[in-house]
Each structure stands twice: as C-alpha cells, then as structure tokens.
User: Which sequence fits this backbone?
C-alpha cells in the first residue's frame, strides 16, 4: 500500500504542513495518455527556459553583486548549454527589502544591476543568439517606497491615493487591532498600522503593500507596464504570486491552518482562503493575454507568452490559469515538491498531463528555483520528512553524493517529459544549497520575521562558481560576493566540468541536445509496463514522426533490466552496471 505522504507537498514559506496535490490514480490501460504537438507548435510549448537570478549569476564591476552587463557577457555559455530562453528575476529599481520583489519603479533598472541601456543591450544580444527573454512581473504588491504608496501615506483615509492599496480601519474601540486575522507569508500579521491609525495589507514583508486590484487605475497601470516592456523587445513575463491579486469581498477572517493549505490529510482547494486563487484573477489575466496576442498578431515571428507562479491546488484549479485566453504556462510546483518515490512521481506526471491537456495547455516542469532548496540538496535528505525551508549548519546535512546522483536522475527524467521545462542557474553544475551561511549574512525576510525559525531561501541564492581558482570562483573581479560562497563550490565550477565526460554540465548539454533533436518537448507519452511501479518510472516519449524514446528511471534498491527492444543508450544520468542493468537512482534514455 502506498504511503499517502508521497503525494503531498509543502509551500516553501508556509511552515510544516503537508499538502495533497495528487489523487491516487488508477493505472491506465490506455496507451497514449498525451498526444504529440503538431510540427508548427508555438515555441513556448516545449521551451527549456533558464532562470537567471541576476544578483547571483555574474558580476562585471566587482561590487560583489551580479549585473546585466555580466549576464550579456555570459549569454554564449547559455547558448552552448542548449536552452531556448532566459527568465530574469526582478532587476527593477528597488530598496531590496525582498531581493527586488519590492519594486519602486517598474520601468527602470536598479543601479545595482545597470541601466536601461544595459537591459536593451542584453535583450538584443540574446535575440542575436537565438535566445528569448522573459522578465519578472510583480503585480501583487509594490515597495513601500513606490511613489504611489508614498502618496497614499500623505493622503487621508478614503482618498483616491489610498484606494490603490488595501487600507482598512482597525478593530477594537481605538482601532488598535488589525482589521482581520490574516498572517504574512514571512511571519507575523499581514497588517501594518500607519500614523493616522489605519492599517494596510501586506501578504509578504511590510515593505511590500498589496495593491488593490479592484481599482481600475491599478489595472490600467499594469497594462501600460506590460506594453512598455513588450515595446523594449521582451518575449514574455513570469508573473509573481499570480494567484494572490484578488481578495475576497469583505476581507473575512480565515481560520485555516497555514492559510490555504490545511493539515495533513486535508484536501482544501486553494480558493478556500480569502486571499489566494479567487476567481476574479482570471478576468485580469484575460486582459493581459489580449495585449500579448495583439503584439503577436502584429509580428507573428515574435510570439509573446506569460507564465504563472501560482501555488494552487487541486489540479483542476491550476488548469484554469492556462486556458487559451490566459497564461500559456504555469509552474508545475507539485512535480517540484514530489518526493523521490516512483509511484508518487508517476501520479504527479499523469495528473499534470491530464489536467493541462483538458484545457489544451502544455505542462511545464521544474525542479529548482530561487525560492526552494536546490534539488541536489533536497534529494539528499531523508524522503519521508517534510521539505525544509532552508538548511543550516546545525541541521541534518544532505548526503552530497546521494543528492547529486538523484538530482541527475530527476533532471534526466524531467527533460524527457512532454512540455516546457525550467532550469535554475547552477543546477547544470549539480550545485547544492549552501548550508554554511552564518546568521549575520542572511537576507531573506523569512529569516527576520520568523526570528530564525525558518532559515529561508538564501542557501539557494548564493552566487554560482565559474572558475575554481579565481576570486569569488569567477563570479566577479572581487573576492567577496554578496553572499559568501562555500569552499566546496570550487569543485562545481564551470571550468572544472567544461568538456569533462560524465560531468553534470556535460550531462545537461547532452540531454538538451538530444531533447531538441528528438523533439521530446513536443512529444506524446505513454507508460511503459513490465516494471515494479513502486520502484521504477518508465515511459515512452512518442514524437509526431513516430520516433520513440524510451525513458526508465530506477528509484528502487536493486538494478533493473532494460528492455532490449527499446534500442541503444542515448544518454544516462550515471553509468550502467557491467551487465548493462540500470542502477538505483539512475535514469536512461533509449532509442
């Protein structure tokens, strides 16, 4: 009997509750559970998109923080890696209370990262190299230093300036209690009181006041921001907290555990929360899609897209975001958060494909990003325990070798699946989280607001290594980076792996080359029978041409025989046994 916990996940900033995402699916006797795309399918249906966290990718000026000129210089590396597009986390003007997700000016570049001219040069160079460019859009909140919010503070309660945000009177005889019991995702109350006694809503840091998306002025402003960046040549947007813009009428108290995610065993839809996944968000995104389609119609060779960061359950709710008049993509967080169990992976893959197929959308796979422990570390932890929000030196440490072996196998499985895929900078090096950061250097608001109970996301944001024997491992001219790099990162540097057979970097390059050659992202899929479902995930990716790629991932304790009729080995995440069997924690492509 399968362990129900294997089909549960945890939001990275919501403490310890387990959250069910997949029903226990019946094994299907049907052959093809996902049909291949047509030859002329849009680029985003199968694209591999590489996430750049700008402050940690590369530094050109020696200030210890990454910047856009350095991104431009490194773009040939990404072309050689084999990705189709890049997504950049926020580079807008910001006080950096939350690493740039607190925006003061959506139409300019923070001097920390460069200038608008640098952004234009980066976009132009990316397009010269055949790379598309996705930029982050942060619509749920602004910085408290945004000109709108400063005007709201200077204006009276009930003024048009305050109507751009969510201001309310407090409870109690003197209004000294918050308007309701909502909690911030970073800890503490979601309400902050201002000098005249009113309170404003911040679902995240108090430096990030939530916008009022019932206000037509807010909607018009973001339409203009979207047009501004499309006119500068970007190919699309990754939308932050896409499920959070609309709040339930009346802002009622919410007594659920961990907001929208109930305790273990509950199956509460996300929209049971009054501040997540409200149906009103879909009207907003339909308006945005109209703008993107307008630009695509004007230049069909430059098709624009947007991807939702939406932590939503069940799958039927998630599918609403990727209907044909809203987002083209949404991150597949259930896949990211599924533990290393074959049956759980089987279920989340099938449910993801079926739910997205129901609205004609591609499934978008992801294993790491700037908000979660890197999968090379996550998979080196005991898989029967909750996924941590950060790992410190005093915590149980991941098994580095085990985590890397499983991470390579997981990526090899992921990149064989139909649909799009996102890679997080450094994962192509097998980079683990840094678990050595002292408390005094941590910058994640989660760490501050929970008083260290949750370590937060700094461990996955440490600057990546390029050259082992250079200052800051080649990240930049300075020996000091904005977050200290552990000594162990030197062995993972690009120059230590480039051209080295069997290295993780060369594995990624091979996977991406074969994925493109065999059109795996546009393929159909069927399950391959004959294996123990509790130990092996086995499937066949079927291209529109009929070409078949067999994929076998062994998560069991013993090596397994590979089907001779499936063909020769195209690529494997690790060596096979001397007898040609597939070892544990290894994935192979055959064809």
Assistant:
């Amino acid at each position: 009997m399968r362990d129900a916990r294997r089909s549960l996940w945890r939001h990275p900033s919501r403490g310890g509750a387990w959250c069910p995402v997949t029903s226990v699916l019946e094994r299907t006797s049907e052959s093809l559970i996902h049909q291949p795309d047509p030859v002329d399918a849009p680029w985003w249906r199968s694209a591999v998109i590489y996430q750049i966290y700008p402050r940690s990718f590369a530094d050109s000026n020696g200030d210890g923080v990454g910047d856009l000129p350095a991104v431009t210089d490194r773009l040939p590396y990404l072309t050689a890696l084999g990705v189709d597009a890049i997504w950049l986390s926020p580079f807008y003007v910001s006080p950096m209370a939350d690493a740039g997700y607190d925006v003061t000016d959506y139409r300019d570049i923070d001097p920390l990262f460069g200038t608008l001219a640098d952004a234009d040069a980066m976009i132009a160079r990316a397009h010269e190299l055949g790379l598309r460019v996705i930029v982050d859009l942060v619509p749920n909140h602004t910085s408290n230093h945004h000109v709108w919010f400063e005007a709201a503070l200077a204006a009276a309660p009930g003024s048009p300036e305050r109507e751009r945000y969510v201001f309310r009177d407090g409870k109690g005889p003197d209004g000294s209690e918050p308007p309701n019991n909502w909690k911030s995702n970073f800890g503490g109350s979601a309400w902050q009181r201002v000098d005249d006694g009113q309170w404003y809503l911040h679902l995240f840091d108090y430096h990030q006041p939530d916008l009022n998306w019932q206000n037509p002025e807010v909607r018009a402003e973001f339409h203009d921001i979207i047009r501004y960046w499309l006119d500068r040549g970007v190919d699309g947007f990754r939308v932050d907290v896409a499920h959070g813009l609309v709040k339930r009428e009346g802002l009622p108290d919410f007594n659920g555990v961990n907001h929208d995610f109930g305790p273990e065993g509950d199956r509460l839809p996300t929209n049971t929360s009054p501040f997540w996944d409200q149906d009103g968000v879909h009207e907003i995104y339909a308006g945005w899609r109209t703008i993107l389609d307008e630009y695509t119609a004007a230049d069909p060779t430059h098709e624009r897209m947007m991807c939702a960061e939406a932590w939503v359950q069940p799958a039927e709710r998630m599918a609403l975001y990727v209907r044909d008049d809203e987002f083209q993509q949404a991150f597949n967080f259930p896949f990211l958060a599924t533990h290393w169990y074959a049956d759980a992976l089987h279920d989340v893959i099938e449910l993801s494909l079926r739910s997205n197929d129901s609205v004609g959308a591609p499934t978008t796979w992801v294993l790491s990003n700037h908000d979660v422990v890197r999968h090379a570390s996550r998979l080196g932890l005991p898989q029967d325990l909750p996924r941590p929000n950060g790992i410190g030196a005093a915590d149980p440490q991941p098994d580095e070798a085990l985590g890397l072996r499983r991470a390579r196998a997981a990526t090899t499985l992921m990149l064989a699946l139909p649909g799009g895929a996102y890679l997080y900078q450094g994962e192509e090096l097998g980079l683990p989280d840094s678990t050595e950061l002292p408390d005094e250097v941590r910058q994640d608001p989660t760490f501050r607001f929970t008083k260290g109970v949750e370590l937060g996301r700094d461990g996955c944001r440490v600057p990546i290594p390029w050259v082992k024997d250079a200052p800051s491992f080649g990240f930049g001219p300075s020996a000091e980076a904005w977050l200290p790099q552990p000594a162990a990162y030197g062995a993972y540097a690009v120059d230590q792996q480039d051209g080295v057979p069997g290295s993780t970097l060369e594995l990624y390059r091979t996977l991406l080359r074969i994925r493109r050659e065999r059109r795996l992202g546009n393929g159909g899929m069927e399950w391959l029978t004959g294996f123990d479902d509790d130990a092996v995930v086995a499937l066949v990716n079927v291209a529109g041409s009929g070409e078949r790629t067999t994929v076998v991932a062994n998560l069991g304790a013993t090596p397994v025989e590979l089907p001779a009729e499936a063909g020769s080995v195209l690529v494997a995440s690790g060596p096979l046994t001397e007898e040609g069997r597939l070892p544990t924690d290894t994935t192979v492509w055959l064809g």
Summary: Confidence is low (pLDDT under 50) at residues 1-29, 258-266. The longest strand covers residues 536-542.
